Automatic annotation (TrEMBL):
InterPro entries xref list: IorB_Oxidoreductase (IPR052198), Pyrv/ketoisovalerate_OxRed_cat (IPR019752), Pyrv_flavodox_OxRed_cen (IPR002869)
Domain of life per record: Bacteria
Xref: Pfam families: POR
Oxidoreductase among keywords: yes
Domain (Pyruvate/ketoisovalerate oxidoreductase catalytic) ranges: 13-189
Protein name from the UniProt record: Indolepyruvate oxidoreductase subunit beta
Keyword annotations of the record: Oxidoreductase
Length: 191
């Protein structure tokens, strides 16, 4: 049986999904894990989907996660959780930001944003954590820190005490945002 763990991070362009993934990878590498990462920007600058696949363990040969193989899915937006749910293992964990970003079709009136996303997720998954990451980030003074709040929720789900997550944040964000992001990480870990 493989010791490789699979994490799928999904969000919308501009939410900081890739930065959160880079911090995640830096922390895991520093702790001695072999890490592979793959990222996809689907019209990311225009509010499209962004996905990052991170695999770590003793030896990882590929960055790609297949359907039904993700140990953890981190969704930075509610609909993205539903969009990628088929990648989660039956006993996998899901960490969801209780945040909605209407798509272009919703904004144009062609579709309705489903209001029951969180209820649908609660009904389908026992290993579900819902985080109001945008609210936590706003309390810290900058909504852009919601990505690191979500990273904190993932860190808690992974339970990897040997990883120095604060060091990973310090080494991967601009100096003027380090304190904000460390506070965001701690907020996410406390949820």
């Amino acid at each position: 049986m493989s010791d490789v763990k699979n994490i799928l991070l999904v969000g919308v362009g501009g939410q900081g999904t890739i930065l959160a993934s880079k911090i995640l990878c830096a922390g895991l590498i520093d702790a001695g894990y072999d890490v592979k990462m793959s990222e996809v920007h689907g019209m990311a600058q225009r509010g499209g989907s962004v996905t990052t696949q991170v695999r770590y363990g003793k030896k990882v040969y590929s960055p790609i996660i297949g359907k039904g193989q993700a140990d953890v899915i981190v969704a930075f937006e509610r609909i993205e959780a539903l969009r990628w749910i088929e990648y989660l293992k039956p006993d996998g964990k899901i960490v969801v930001n209780d945040y909605a970003i209407p798509s272009a079709t919703v904004l144009s009136g062609k579709e309705q944003y489903p209001e029951d996303v969180v209820d649908r997720l609660k009904g389908a998954f026992k290993n579900l954590t819902i985080i109001n990451a945008s609210g936590e980030a706003l309390e810290l003074g900058n909504i852009k820190a919601q990505n690191v709040v979500m990273l904190g929720g993932l860190v808690k789900a992974l339970n990897l005490p040997e990883v120095d997550w604060v060091k990973a944040v310090r080494e991967n964000v601009k100096e003027k945002f380090v304190d904000l992001n460390i506070a965001a990480l701690e907020r996410g870990m406390a949820v």
